[in-house]
User: Fold this.
Amino acid sequence: MPARDLKRNNVIGHVVDRLCRSESYRVISFRDDHRMPMPSMEKIADAVESLRSLLFPGYFGLSDVNHSSIPFYTGSILSRVFDMLSEQIKRGMCFSCQEQKTLTCESECEGKARVISSKFIESLPGIRTLLASDVWAAYEGDPAAKSLGETIFCYPSIRALTSYRIAHELYRLSVPLIPRMITEMAHSETGIDIHPGAEIKDRFFMDHGTGIVIGETCIIGRNVRLYQGVTLGAKSFPLDEKGNPVKGRPRHPIVEDNVIIYSGATILGRVTIGRSSVIGGNVWLTHSVRPYSHIVQASYEDEAFEDGAGI
Amino acid sequence: MPARDLKRNNVIGHVVDRLCRSESYRVISFRDDHRMPMPSMEKIADAVESLRSLLFPGYFGLSDVNHSSIPFYTGSILSRVFDMLSEQIKRGMCFSCQEQKTLTCESECEGKARVISSKFIESLPGIRTLLASDVWAAYEGDPAAKSLGETIFCYPSIRALTSYRIAHELYRLSVPLIPRMITEMAHSETGIDIHPGAEIKDRFFMDHGTGIVIGETCIIGRNVRLYQGVTLGAKSFPLDEKGNPVKGRPRHPIVEDNVIIYSGATILGRVTIGRSSVIGGNVWLTHSVRPYSHIVQASYEDEAFEDGAGI
Amino acid sequence: MPARDLKRNNVIGHVVDRLCRSESYRVISFRDDHRMPMPSMEKIADAVESLRSLLFPGYFGLSDVNHSSIPFYTGSILSRVFDMLSEQIKRGMCFSCQEQKTLTCESECEGKARVISSKFIESLPGIRTLLASDVWAAYEGDPAAKSLGETIFCYPSIRALTSYRIAHELYRLSVPLIPRMITEMAHSETGIDIHPGAEIKDRFFMDHGTGIVIGETCIIGRNVRLYQGVTLGAKSFPLDEKGNPVKGRPRHPIVEDNVIIYSGATILGRVTIGRSSVIGGNVWLTHSVRPYSHIVQASYEDEAFEDGAGI
Amino acid sequence: MPARDLKRNNVIGHVVDRLCRSESYRVISFRDDHRMPMPSMEKIADAVESLRSLLFPGYFGLSDVNHSSIPFYTGSILSRVFDMLSEQIKRGMCFSCQEQKTLTCESECEGKARVISSKFIESLPGIRTLLASDVWAAYEGDPAAKSLGETIFCYPSIRALTSYRIAHELYRLSVPLIPRMITEMAHSETGIDIHPGAEIKDRFFMDHGTGIVIGETCIIGRNVRLYQGVTLGAKSFPLDEKGNPVKGRPRHPIVEDNVIIYSGATILGRVTIGRSSVIGGNVWLTHSVRPYSHIVQASYEDEAFEDGAGI
Amino acid sequence: MPARDLKRNNVIGHVVDRLCRSESYRVISFRDDHRMPMPSMEKIADAVESLRSLLFPGYFGLSDVNHSSIPFYTGSILSRVFDMLSEQIKRGMCFSCQEQKTLTCESECEGKARVISSKFIESLPGIRTLLASDVWAAYEGDPAAKSLGETIFCYPSIRALTSYRIAHELYRLSVPLIPRMITEMAHSETGIDIHPGAEIKDRFFMDHGTGIVIGETCIIGRNVRLYQGVTLGAKSFPLDEKGNPVKGRPRHPIVEDNVIIYSGATILGRVTIGRSSVIGGNVWLTHSVRPYSHIVQASYEDEAFEDGAGI
Amino acid sequence: MPARDLKRNNVIGHVVDRLCRSESYRVISFRDDHRMPMPSMEKIADAVESLRSLLFPGYFGLSDVNHSSIPFYTGSILSRVFDMLSEQIKRGMCFSCQEQKTLTCESECEGKARVISSKFIESLPGIRTLLASDVWAAYEGDPAAKSLGETIFCYPSIRALTSYRIAHELYRLSVPLIPRMITEMAHSETGIDIHPGAEIKDRFFMDHGTGIVIGETCIIGRNVRLYQGVTLGAKSFPLDEKGNPVKGRPRHPIVEDNVIIYSGATILGRVTIGRSSVIGGNVWLTHSVRPYSHIVQASYEDEAFEDGAGI
Assistant:
């Protein structure tokens, strides 16, 4: 063996040794005490794409479905999604059990996962109704939109909301990990980061979308429009006696019906943006505002905003 | 059949029924009245990557082309791109016809699509000239750039501009849907959202780029530089008598030659940023500024900006 | 041949001619004077994913490794990564030589690349230690985080930092091009743009992350937390006598230990943010601040920020 | 450019010239006068595999179908196969038209292809009945077969017959080219070459199968068993005045019910093998034999063969 | 919906109905009463290829293993093969249980499958020793062989024997279905059909190989050479009272050491070919022959065969 | 770790040890003393498919080439094939050097490989001329052939001959290993095994083809037709003083012009089959026959064979 290969192998042997030594796992433990694999990104992405093709038939997935063949198509996709989701939800639950050191959960988690899959499937017609309203909101809210179909097919807002509305339903059914995986995939694709725990009513539109952040305990009313770079975040969070953040407390804004928030605005804390308010771009806001308020960055005079104004 | 499978199937049968019922399509119609499939994301992405390899030979696609083999390579890629684009443009046109309820358009659209493909192909040498100027602008505008080649190969600015310049040419040729699909793919990859309708002259550079939005009717001069998070948007849009936005009106900024706009600035409406102006970071601007202006956020004193200053 | 095909071919022949003519390469040269292909995005992405599976065993890659099989697994992945990296580093070096018109570098670059690969491999245990501290920082810094494992598996912060810490080590070993390719891949996935030259200590956390920019000469201390849209950039850069930017000068901020910077803040130039300072959202800052400073946007009164406050 | 690359390119340019010159196409014409592409091997293979999964549900394709989900599954696969086959049959027909210099056939062929696809789909239940009988024949005819399921899943005989029975139905519907493509794919996989024109009744079994040839005008009765290497071929064929073989005449054997033919036997010409005959291995036979004959190679005495004897 | 689509859908609906009706499953039952999927061809093919790379390191699989890295490589491949095989063996066992209507076997089969996998893994060094002898036999038995490496890399004999020797070991461990799947894959690739139950000693060579059939109860000694088209089959098999063949009885030839059998010879029944015999091409043989016999087809005088003579 | 995993790992550790021990490599050496990887099956298959698309444009590969685009297409495929072949030929040469313990051959082999690639490319027009004659022979020799195009697209004879004629040209250029790999791939697909060393003139046709074997030193004249299962083999081969076969001696038949050989015939040794002879099925022949002979199996009277008779 040439000397240089010898050297390579010595280095590798040495590093294997150091990486596999138990001290190396003091801080973050190595997942070896449980046989259930992690949920699969690929399978979850596949399930989400399959659901997209059911929610918007003819736009995604098979392009040649028609009124007669669609029941077959819908039924076979639903069967497949049901089984994929049951498996991935089970893995998500077992992962969560493991984090809590509950190790003999497999068959119990499998049963629960199937029940949840059933309930999720039943929520699909309602998800379609919500998304249809979001499609109209995108078409009406963007002068550049040429047709309803274009918003379904191309708009990051519809893409991110489809993922969010699926993930939110799973979150409501107490599925661990999977909802977050779904919204993070949409985050990576669109730059829009909606926590699956947020509650968002119908007719929601996010123009451009990159950089939007919507926190876990947000509540957003009907007919709300956001522009790129808007943050609906938490302002502060209490720590427990060990210095860890207290989890699960309402800490993000409530945005009432018909509100418009322009690009780059940052709204923090459990504040309420009253109905039909307009928040200007780049505003930093940490207190509630009354209905019909118009808030703009202090240092610039600004022409009047009318309802329907946009970017 | 085990009881639990029975239950699963009942649920699926029930949901199929609800999803396929015609009421479910009241709001967004189901694409079943037309046999032309939607344009294919995969094929369009393939065409764009092929064009990238023609525009920057040796950097993308086949790495071993040389002065003698390049005509063969260029010719065979062009033939392939011509046919792929003709098909996808036809689909985009038929989609647009369908939205307008014109159903017997297929052969007419096919002919038009081939004419457009020809014209598009003829514009490629001009697109290369523009992109070459953008490469120089990136190299000169970023102290971190080590070579021209690095900016071609790694910079989101060049990647997004290649897609935009291709999409803009198709937009100019009145192709529906496809240009938007191309810029949305680049948006997803780079976080840079340039509407294909915008007009951008040569030597354009966007450093970092994430969150940049450039609206449909923007006009951008030569040698302009933007940083991440800059919005060139619309401020308001008039509604027609039905409450829908009036489409197609000039509503985004005009940015003249040699302007620099720093990160997070938001410029809205059909305003003009005069030549050689510098707009500071996080500024919110809704009126025109004269040539050679230096605009900064009000609340901070700030050292002088010279030409050539950057982030 | 139908007339329309004839027309198509004439156009293609004509465009081939114009694209292959030497004038077309006046501005950006065509890569044909060197036989070494460009580094491969696919191979580098593969190497980074393989390293991710070694750094967090059980989370990524093979899910069924255990205490006995992990040395085999680690050794075989390391061997593969070593060879892939050696090849790609060699290509990066040759690319760099070519830009400097050094054409007979291949065997010299190959030898150097193997030495660098060895040194890089030896740095992996240290990279794991740093990333373990980042995982804790994410868990403690986000009330929405349910477990350490969730932050490893889902958080863009950990994903981007894994890529950055790998790329930074290669940057320190003077590898050209490859480090930038690695961080740009992470930039595309997460919207987080960290230059591989930046120095970042342990326990670093970026919540949400989209739009964060960290420049080449930044120095960031321990236990720092950033929110989405934060820029740590350069304010101005001197030009040399030819008008090109002077490369490689310290021009980005120094951020000391325990600093928190909220969303959308822009900090420019070689300034120092003193230890334990808190910088509010959307702030534009171009001068140094003392330790324990609390800086907020001028135009809004604001409730007090405590340590531990977040979004 | 290095001298060696120059040389390479000269050679290539020279060969391109010679290969593209029209003389080069004197003998076999170049397919350029018709725009319809050749049928796709991949698509046809996909259709055949999909049909296999419908004919033997649970063995091939989705493994988790059950009594409730199978109608959805069957319906969606049938829709897909219908469309794939219609397209491929159309291509096959246009290919055939082109060979006969009929160039404006596309829309007429499309209509015919859909009618044929419908008729083919209607024949599937009958094909399943035949194949079920073949499965029993395999199980009963091979002492090594452990179960019916094993013969479905593993036996080349069932694999080749599934392809043949599909191809034969298309042949009966006068589809050009496609049936032959299907049986040639099975020939490549199993070494069994059955012309799609042959007629084969139920309960047919070919043990091992490699090298079996069954010609275009063969007629094979019920309950026939062949071993590997059996040829049922033509002995001579008349030539027309131009010296080309006269096509389409009966020229292959008729094999009546319950016949067994051992390995390597060659039977040529339009002869009849009477019912319940047994033909020994390696026999060369060019005349008819009466029912209940036992034919063996002349030069060896041989123990009696009983019904049910096998290899 | 166009009339033609209506027609299509009526046909499909009608055929779905007929294919899913229970009468359609009278003859071959539909696999729906068991949840374990069929073994996966793809996984088993993957396991066999992985084993090939372990048995002949450097020839197949990773080409850059060396004396230091090979333990890592071997260990990680073995771990992966162990898990793949355990899963597939379990499926094969459950399939077999189902055929026997034993439905609650899953966890028992899982345990057994792991024990068998262990034993199989332990047999690998012995399999390598046998295959090494087969490689020498091929090199020495074919004047066209240029090197040992060429026979490993290109010869169907070595390819088929590798699969057979793996399958035979699994057969000895009483694994159902999987051994047959492995030898049928090799049969499809090489045209060589060796039943996994056959016993074959070392230094075995099959030149060309197409059409060779070696039956379930064959016993083949050391240093035997076969040419293409040789059948070692059964002559007759007794039927039980129901008319089904009695399974599992010795019914194929015993071939002693140093025998050569030329192309197309057919040897049937539990006969013994005595040591060092030579059987000529196309011979049909159904009785035992003494050691050192030379059997040729009767009708041709023939020159003497010496040991070492070949085709 | 569960006990069963412990057991698994012990077994694996133990087997790794035995497989990696040096004794295990006594018989067949482990390829570790040379860094050049084995030739790649995938790349060679890719090159052969690319050549097939050049030789029969419009049938294989891109279906939309036309008279104007074909030079581009041909040129770019040729460039790609040239580079692929150069690399694979180099690997084949280095493999051969290694077998002869010549270890420092890499750059010399690289140069030679490029020269050979050039020469091979120049032989392509001649290969096309030969194959065109083979296509005519297939069409005229098979009454079942409906058109010239069908024989190009579907017939195993044309498929195997394309591979053989490519491989033979490489064999003539003294390329080791690669020609055999190419003909073995065709052997696996078609069951036709032609050694690349055989010499075969124009207008050659093999009907059905399965099981045909044509040995290394065969010489076959013009207008010869073979049926399935024909062997043209060696009868005996002399051994050298060590007992190894003497390589490279003429030992296979010479078949003169216009000969027809029916299925299953076996012709062995350096004998000559005189022009226009007809050899009947299953004949075993080891001596020369005069021109115009008609040889049939002895034991059956047989009707007269006319020229043009077939199966």
Summary: Confidence is low (pLDDT under 50) at residues 299-311 of chain C. Chain C has two domains: 35-191, 198-311.
